[in-house]
Amino acid sequence: MERTVKKVHFINPIIPKRKRVAAYARVSSAKDAMHHSLSAQVSYYSSLIQSRGEWEYAGVYADEAKTGTKDSRQEFTRLIADCKAGRIDMVITKSISRFARNTVTLLSVVRELKAIGVDIYFEEQNIYTLSADGELMLTILASYAQEESLSASENQKWRIRKNFSEGKPWNGTILGYRYADGKFIIEPSEAEVVRRIYSLYLDGWGYEKTANTLSQEGVLTRFGNSWDLSVVKRILKNYTYTGNLLLQSTYRDNYINKKTLKNNGELPQYRVENAHEAIVDMDTFNAVQAEIHRRAEKHQRSLHQNKTYPFTSKIVCEHCGKHYRRKITAAGAVWICTTFNSKGKSACPSKQIPEQVLIDITRDLADIRSIRACDNNVLNITLSDGTTVTRSWQDRSRKDSWTVEMKATARANELKRRACNA
Fold first, then answer.
1. Is residue 350 over pLDDT 70?
2. Are 327 and 302 in contact (CB under 8 A)?
């Protein structure tokens, strides 16, 4: 028998590509967090996705203490961005109300992801958005979810407005007080902080300086955080510290946007006098309001007088990345990092640059695009054609930094000192 040899061809098995699956979880209230915590949801979805051999784990995106009617959820935004970047093929979430209670927003996101082939699976409703009837079911169910949100919002409004009509505040959390049995009770150590803030403002301190000083001293806010100017400003404007209440001074425009508006007569307001013990007397409070108004008017006048200078928006700090701004000091005009100017050297170790120095070392350069202020008095200057020029500058001596007015003042003070010692 004749021997035969045949070549054997092996067929490589086609391994299906695993679907990259992520999950989105959210809790919106303390009650929700108690019964089904965010960590529990994260653990559940992590186990679910990784237990499926045909799925590849793409992470769990989780938001806490946010509402489905708002679009400012950070993890939700990051999830959508990763979907658009091609990192995710499918998203799992518990229900439509977990994803969004606004029908328009929900369908907009669903259609946007559907256009790039990303599926969303809603467990509770058993809906896949890429299925044929997925969008129809979503439209119907999301409308119910939106109505549920509207009903909950209206019930909450009714309760808050009823409390207002009875002289009760809607929120008892305020620095300097504890809310108990329907009344504000002074918390002594925090009350002293409040009084100090009012005193410093009347002494000429600004919001930022006060906030930075309190943070540097280790003083914490009502919620245990460091201070910023907005917190100081709210304290200085809070009528509650006078021992009185002004209720419903603001309101929400609607349950979807939840934008806070000033109440200019759209709804009734309620004033409660002698509601609790005052931390700040009325004269001090009124003096602070007058000073706030005076500074605001001064600031508005300065805005109208604002000028654009040759170095405006061109100098960038190497340390924090913020722009330098022009500032008038006793020694003349300088350019200073905005972080250093507002928060001090502890926040940014940059140096201010005398304006005349900038003018002198850039006099021969045309069409400057940007200037990077670096350590050791080095400036990396980029021109409009893309070329970079490096220049350095010397600190002015103390003698050179003194103006004629400063020298005259020093001489006058020295003469006074000698006369006192004679």
1. yes
2. no
Q: Is the pLDDT of residue 220 over 70?
A: yes
DSSP strands (E only) in 259-323: 260-262, 270-272, 315-317
User: Are the CB atoms for 63 and 106 separated by under 8 Å?
Assistant: no
Q: What is the pLDDT of residues 15-28, one digit of tens each?
A: 568 899 999 988 76
d(CA 374, CA 33): 48
What would the 3-class secondary structure string for 190-238 be?
HHHHHHHHHHHHHCCCCHHHHHHHHHHCCCCCCCCCCCCHHHHHHHHCC
**H-state helical runs in 269-397:** 282-304, 338-343, 355-361
- CA distances, 303 to each of 209, 297, 315, 330 (Å): 21, 10, 21, 22
Alpha helices by DSSP H, 24-133: 30-35, 38-50, 74-84, 96-99, 103-115
Q: By the 8 A CB rule, do 361 and 391 touch?
A: yes
- Contact indicator for 243, 254 with CB cutoff of 8 Å: no
Selection from 61, 58, 134 nearest residue 98 by Cα: 61
Is beta strand 245-247 parallel, antiparallel or unpaired with respect to 332-337?
Answer: unpaired
Contacts of residue 341, defined as CB under 8 A and 6 or more positions apart, other chains included, come to 325, 327
Pairing state between β 315-317 and 353-354: unpaired
> Is 386 buried (19+), middle (13-18) or exposed (0-12) by CB count in 10 A?
exposed
Calpha distance 102→408 (Å, rounded): 69
Q: Evaluate whether 153 touches 143 at the Cβ level (below 8 Å).
A: no
Cβ pair 55, 19 in contact under 8 A: yes
φ/ψ of 247, rounded to 5, equals: -100, 145
pLDDT at 121 (0 to 100): 92
Q: Tokens 């979810």, residue?
A: 145
What pTM does this model have?
A: 0.46
| CA pair distance 3, 9, nearest whole angstrom | 20
- The encoded tokens of residue 326 equal 């022009």
Query: How does pLDDT run across 377-416, given as a tens digit for each residue?
Result: 999 999 888 888 999 888 866 555 555 666 677 677 777 7
Least confident of 129-133, 349-353, 380-384: 129-133
Which contiguous run of DSSP H or E holds residue 121? strand 119-122
